[in-house]
Amino acid sequence: MTGGRRSLRVGRRELGDGCLILGAILLVAGAPLTPPWMSAGMILAGLGWLLSLPPPGARWALVAGLGVTALIAAAGLATWFDLDRPVKFAQYQVAWVAMFFTRIGLADPRWRRAALMALLVTVGAATLLACLQYVIGYEPKLRPWRIDTGGQRQWVMASGFAPHTITFGFIAGLVVILFVCDRTLGPTLRITAIILGALCLAMSGCRGALLGLLAALAIIVLLSKDRVAWWLAGLVTMVAVMITWVAWRQPARIAELLAGKNDRWLIWAAAFDAITQRPWTGHGGLDGYRQAIAGVDFRALSGPMTSPNPHNSWLALAAFHGAPVAAAHLALLGAVLLEVRRTAVALALPLALIAYWLVAGCFQSLAAHALPSLAFFAFLGLAWPTRSGGEGSLPVPDLR
Fold first, then answer.
1. Which distant-in-sequence residues (6+ apart) come within 8 Å of 372 by Cβ?
2. Of 85-89, 207-211, 286-290, 383-387, which gets the smallest average pLDDT?
3. 392 burial type by CB count under 10 A (0-12 exposed, 13-18 middle, 19+ buried)
4. Annotated domain spans of the chain
């Protein structure tokens, strides 16, 4: 009987490890695909975690992440009592957990390599679809492929499998940063992935991601200690050329932003006003936020939006759930960097990813949307792999 129980325990742990590994692979490889892939990865990895119960480690990052979720829950309850708005759950509220799933589930180099190979395949598929959208014509309402054969929006932008061009461009930038720093795959595969990611980013037209990528690559160049820094500098130059190309294609947008007449100034002002109304608990999410800004006149916007989101991650978190949540999110990133320093992992990749997240988040509400949040934290887990000490410890991935 004792032997049977022991076998049952071993079998449950092995099943949990398998689910955690497969879920982590889905989280990484599913980033360029439709949202259900990453949601399935979260569910599967969570099930695996409950079955195998691996130690999460990194207690400060864990405490900070739990603090973010706890503050969001408390703000939701306060909004429910004050404004009679139902508490709504969204995946971005627990997206930080994906960091622990990929960090532990892909610690073994074999599974890490499998995840990166799967990511290369999905990026290739997304690039192919984006090229068709970009050349033939892109129409976001024509799901699932979003291809407009009428060509009315030809040579404008593309989103691949993603629901929005901004999400597509942001994830493409993550791919570029990851494969620039992670040398798990050979140089040919890495360069292929970098080219595909850069191509997707260019076709998305996501200007915030371009600026974020420029900041991330600059950090990688500054922290590089080997003799290949020159090609990293070439990548920075490439991104600068891409930004120049966007400015050439849309000069009016750049001029308006510098002159303080861009649509975002009106949107940010409305978001800040909404924050001042309920600075501690927010308005309970996007729906409550839109009710709070219902009196703002957005007819001056050049786009079709009549009640937009804040177009800024930190304004969005503060307006949706209160300023303490936005501060806690930044504290979580700081806790990750603290843990990275303690584990002596190469700093370039986690620093570059966080810089990319911060800069790109200044122009879009990335932290208040599920897909970009899950992708960022899943990739951040790859940048900060776990390793056990002593005999039989896993080798550290070859990170810049």
1. 167, 170, 171, 364, 366
2. 383-387
3. exposed
4. 2-383
40 close to 30: Cβ distance less than 8 angstroms? yes
Chain centroid offset of residue 128 CA: 22
Residues 6+ apart with CB under 8 A from 285: 76, 88, 90, 320, 321
Note whether 284 and 87 are within 8 A (CB): yes
Q: Environment class of residue 124 by beta-carbon count within 10 Å: exposed (0-12), middle (13-18) or buried (19+)?
A: middle
What is residue 47's predicted lDDT score, i.e. its pLDDT?
A: 96
Phi, psi angle pair for 363, to nearest 5° = -120, -10
Enumerate residues 6+ apart whose C-beta is below 8 A from 365: 309, 310, 311, 312, 313, 315, 316
- How far is residue 370 from each of residues 34, 39, 163, measured CA to CA in Å? 11, 9, 11
24 with 46: CB under 8 angstroms? no
Token couple for 172: 């493409």
Size of the chain in residues: 400
Q: What are phi and psi of 240, to 5 degrees?
A: -60, -40
Taking alpha carbons only, the member of 155, 135, 234 closest to residue 242 is 234
Q: Which stretches does DSSP call E strand in the chain?
A: none
pTM: 0.90
pLDDT digits (tens, 9 = 90+) for 30-61: 999 999 999 999 999 999 999 998 888 788 99
**pLDDT tens digit sequence for 238-276:** 666 666 666 665 666 556 555 555 677 888 989 999 999
Sorted by sequence, the CB contacts under 8 Å of residue 181 that are 6+ apart come out as: 220, 346, 348, 349, 352, 383, 399, 400
Residue 123: the pLDDT is 98
Average pLDDT, integer, range 137-154: 79
pLDDT of res. 247: 62
Any idea what the Cα angle at residue 286 is, between residues 253 and 69, rounded to 5°? 115
Residue located via tokens 């494969």: 179
Q: Which two tokens stand for residue 51?
A: 């079955």
Query: What count of Cα atoms within 13 Å lies in the side-chain half-sphere of residue 342?
Result: 13
Do residues 248 and 255 touch, judged by C-beta distance below 8 A?
A: no
